[in-house]
Amino acid sequence: MILTQYYEERGQLVAEARSVLDGLADDASATEVKAAEERHDTIMAKVDTLDKKIEREERMAAAERTEEERRSRQRPNGRDGSAPAIDQPNEDEERSEDERHAEYRDAFYAMLASGGDHSALSNEQRALLRVGYVENKSEQRTQTAGTPSAGGYTVPTTLASKIVEVMKDWGPMYDPGITDEMVTSSGNPFDLPTNDDTGNTGESLAEGADLTDDGSGDLEFGEVSLAAFTRATPWLKISFELLQDSAFNLEAFIARKIGERLGRLANAELTVGAGGANAARGVVVASTAGKTAAAQAAIAADEVIDLQHSVNAAYRRSPQCRFMFADTTLAVLRKLKDGQGNYLWQMGDVRVGAPDLIHGKPYSVNDDVPAIAAGAKSILFGDFSRYTVRKVGSPLIGTVRERFWPKVGLAGLIRFDGDLTDAAAIKALQQAAA
Known about the structure:
seven-stranded mixed beta sheet
């Protein structure tokens, strides 16, 4: 199996990179050290490339399993050898969620294949697009109903999942496995209460004494308000022929292109957004300095450890506690050793889902986090589940025909906001000022 080969090759490359640095003598010259570090970086670049191959293969395997499951559900299974009818169900028979979703999905792709020409759709298909598909009783997927004039429609569930999956690939801040996700059906301002009670404790009580009643034990609440900022991609123009070609994987194409663009946009804003009335407050902006580096353009191993311990142990126990930094910063951290000569970077085991670690904690590479430079917050550490990303419904896709004829224009739209709801949860390593 090709994944097994990739796993073995990765382990060999990491061992080789370790030996390059470990082979340096204590009295090695600056030239020898530089040459060894360049060799180390070259090998680790191969590791990074291999990681991407492994990720693609794992995703492909998962996609193949999903597709096989879908096909198995659609295989004939009736007594007469027919498949379940979803196009013309018995009016007296209540349709299942899968059937309702399949109908909406068929109408959505028929709309795209016609280049957004609603006159080419049946009355039933147009009605389905106007109403949208209700995923569950508490959330209607179409918050803004699509109309022929606007051409905006909530994407089917499977396509939405693929778009969000690609968005995760372009940055971790939109990933509900890293940050806290809150999905709402409307875009009204949403207020979240905050409280920091870490400075309070109990007290000893002498026999017969009264409890303290001076207000010092009262809880103090703050508030974080999350809006719903609308962000859209530029027009994506594709040929009319591709839309009509049944052999063309339309779903994968749209998911990849729209997802990449939305992912770059959302991750950047959730990382370094200025906050306020017009943008999300990014995690870099919201975090406070837990450690200030001695240098403007370098990081010491002890400083990384100090940053880690500037965050309370209660947050460090969270499964979503991690480091976050740019890829160029990762290249620096891979070479650092602690006082006992152990590397801070430790290789995980991708075969069992064990991630690579920095001083015992996982990390996420986010190239929107500032690189190492004077005054920059180059490393974040803490419990990222305390950063809440508010999402409104699912992505929308709009279509335009006449403007780009004979091509068809597609654009994606999302609504979101984000903020750090607990200022003590995530701290930053800040480089020395210029």
